[in-house]
Amino acid sequence: xxxxxxxxxxxxxxxxxxxxxxxxxxxxxxxxxxxxxxxxxxxxxxxxxxxxxxxxxxxxxxxxxxxxxxxxxxxxxxxxxxxxxxxxxxxxxxxxxxxxxxxxxxxxxxxxxxxxxxxxxxxxxxxxxxxxxxxxxxxxxxxxxxxxxxxxxxxxxxxxxxxxxxxxxxxxxxxxxxxxxxxxxxxxxxxxxxxxxxxxxxxxxxxxxxxxxxxxxxxxxxxxxxxxxxxxxxxxxxxxxxxxxxxxxxxxxxx
Amino acid sequence: xxxxxxxxxxxxxxxxxxxxxxxxxxxxxxxxxxxxxxxxxxxxxxxxxxxxxxxxxxxxxxxxxxxxxxxxxxxxxxxxxxxxxxxxxxxxxxxxxxxxxxxxxxxxxxxxxxxxxxxxxxxxxxxxxxxxxxxxxxxxxxxxxxxxxxxxxxxxxxxxxxxxxxxxxxxxxxxxxxxxxxxxxxxxxxxxxxxxxxxxxxxxxxxxxxxxxxxxxxxxxxxxxxxxxxxxxxxxxxxxxxxxxxxxxxxxxxxxxxxxxxxxxxxxxxxxxxxxxxxxxxxxxxxxxxxxxxxxxxxxxxxxxxxxxxxxxxx
Lengths: 255, 315
Prior knowledge:
Distance between the termini of chain B: 39 Å
Strand order of the largest sheet of chain B: 6-7-8-3-9-10
Oligomer: heterodimer
Radius of gyration of chain A: 19 Å
Number of helices of chain A: 11
Largest sheet of chain B: 6 strands, mixed
């Protein structure tokens, strides 16, 4: 836990020192404007919850992806990665801690989106189940921190993480039903979406905005945690294999 | 306690390069470093020094042979090796420039599972030790290269390691900082730590190393104390003198037991075939009024050039 906390604290300090890491949060209002604008233009007020939840999850996942790639790229670039790998805590824990920090920061996106809806579109977003919303954001952050280890493992193998980062964003949003409802996807594709923790997060966040009682909240939060934990386990295996490979190839640093 | 702090047996490392012949970085490297020893690894660029340090510090895997640190295998027992070692590789790199020295050290302390309070205490002690206590809250990017290297050394010591690997640690330091660095290395050895350092700096190796391994093209040429290495290069004494005229040097050169006389702008060096000739040559020089005279052995630099060869900028 000390390594995890230390890595999270480091990431908070890095974000404070370099505001460039907040780009995803700064971009969030623009996504909110786009999605709320589409819903209004289409006359589909019933999809307002989708328009509100999508930018929040885009910000959260975008920051997780950005940081997991950046940890590899920048740490490798400044010669830190080799040192980190040679510590007792190990690289997967560092990735999880740093991604957890930024995903928790991305909770700011909820406030941003609420303000855009209120000020820009005159739409009052009422959070009918605030504790459910809060719990969903927290477990989603945890799940992202676990899953990020898989991505970081892949990024370690690549000479640059940016290409992978760019190609991983929107397919995931579509598959997880973040942008459009899962029910709009072909039937054979929907089970794939259910393997992604973001689809469960999106459902719970949307339901937390609706007045209807939430059904099976705890089990569904548990599924998000379980998928995140599975991501962490797979990520650790992937990272072990990848680190062994790069220790053979000698490509942990690019000199 | 392990008999040896560092052991390497027939260690080899080959780098496969696409569409090019494989590069042999290390071949049949065997060495032993005793606990508490300051061991220097000396060699030209591309000799395999950094590769060896990376293998010993679990960053790289060897292609052949094996190595142990404090008795633990660096391949099979990385979890046992890592808490015991500190590594300073990459010169002044390896730090977060936008963060302060204290923030950097706090992070590394966490990666070695130090409790926050212990990490802070250790960081303060190390910052004081490397002379950065007053600049500990400044961003590292505002530091000079020498300051970053000192902080890097502090980072390598954050976990109180038993074995410290230093890869070219004083490159870029000014002479004063380099002298302070050498003093710290001697202190670390006095505390019972093993220090394994690579360097190009002969004066540094002579000043701080108990033993030196000369390495070239991935192979160990010799492992000895700096003094013993000097004897390896030349078993005979030399006499250096200043102020001797050409006539005096000519007569000295003709004495029995004198191999040759080499003259530079400031001094002359008389190479002797036998140790017995020292007295006779000294008497001759003093009688000729030459008062600046001393008996010397080859410096480590001369040994290095003798064994590795002077290949200029080539690697």
